[in-house]
Amino acid sequence: MLPFILLPLLWAHIRRHPLRPLLKAWDLLPLLAIELIHVFFQISCFAGNTRWIGLGRYLQWALLLSLLVPILRRRLYKPALWGAGCTIVGSLLNRVVMAANGGQMPVWPTLSQWTGYCTRETLSLGLDKVHILMTEGARLTFLGDYIDLGWCILSPGDVLNHLFVSIIVYYTVLSFERTEK
Predict the structure, then answer these.
(1) Which helix H or strand E contains 172, and what residues bound it?
(2) What is the C-alpha separation between 76 and 81, in angstroms, rounded?
(3) In sequence order, what are the beta bridge partners of 20?
(4) Residue 181 pLDDT > 70
(5) Looking at CB atoms within 10 Å, which of 46, 99, 137, 155 has the fewest?
(6) pLDDT: is 1 or 96 the higher one?
(7) Backbone region of residue 75 per phi and psi (left: phi > 0; alpha: psi in -120 to 50; beta: other values)
(8) With 0-12 CB in 10 A as exposed, 13-18 as middle and 19+ as buried, what is 103?
(9) CA distance 63 to 75
(10) 147 beta partners
(11) Could you give the CA distance from residue 140 to residue 24 in angstroms, rounded to a whole number?
(12) Sequence-separated (6 or more) residues with CB below 8 Å from residue 57
């Protein structure tokens, strides 16, 4: 998730939008706090501690709720609708590929093989009931998890889901210019 927070900040900086107001605003603090917890969970998984994995769904809800702060405070209703649309389409894409593969998401680890986050061997064991190794028999593999960042493997649907965060972060930065004028 961290790239989906940092990339819109980089894009805003490239487009010469001021980022300094972020230091004074508290709008994105809940989002950043939840992302720090997420990073802690990822580091724990790298260390072999998987007891936090069950809390992942609560973390997703907390993340979505944290986005309500800048949406409501900065009145980012149109960007929120675009982000929600991306989330709906992304979720549908994930559901389609899972339905085509018997309720499981095919995964193709590349960079994660080197980092040790996810290997083909661990996917072949079937420890995870949702993810399976992407093989030649998998269907709709172009919608599966193959965008490997080394600490997570995303599908195109996941990218669309996470785009919601990027949209809100970017438009939060843009809203600082509106309030300064």
Answers:
(1) helix 156-180
(2) 9
(3) none
(4) no
(5) 137
(6) 96
(7) left
(8) exposed
(9) 18
(10) 154
(11) 46
(12) none
Distance of CA 159 to the CA centre of its chain: 7
- Give the burial string for 42-81 (b: 16+ CB within 10 Å, else e): beebeeeeeebeeeeeebeebbeebbebbbeebebeebbe
Query: Encoding tokens for residue 62?
Result: 């907390």
Burial of residue 137 (CB within 10 Å: 0-12, 13-18, 19+) is exposed
Please give the model's pTM, rounded to 2 decimal places.
0.85
pLDDT digits (tens, 9 = 90+) for 106-156: 999 889 888 877 777 777 776 677 888 888 999 999 999 999 998 889 999
Closest CA to 170 of 19, 36, 62: 19
CA-closest candidate to residue 177, choices 25, 5, 65: 25
Residue 131: phi and psi, rounded to 5, are -100, 140
Length of the chain: 181
Separation CA 132–CA 125 (nearest Å):
9
Name the DSSP class of 141: G
83, burial (CB in 10 Å: exposed 0-12, middle 13-18, buried 19+) = buried
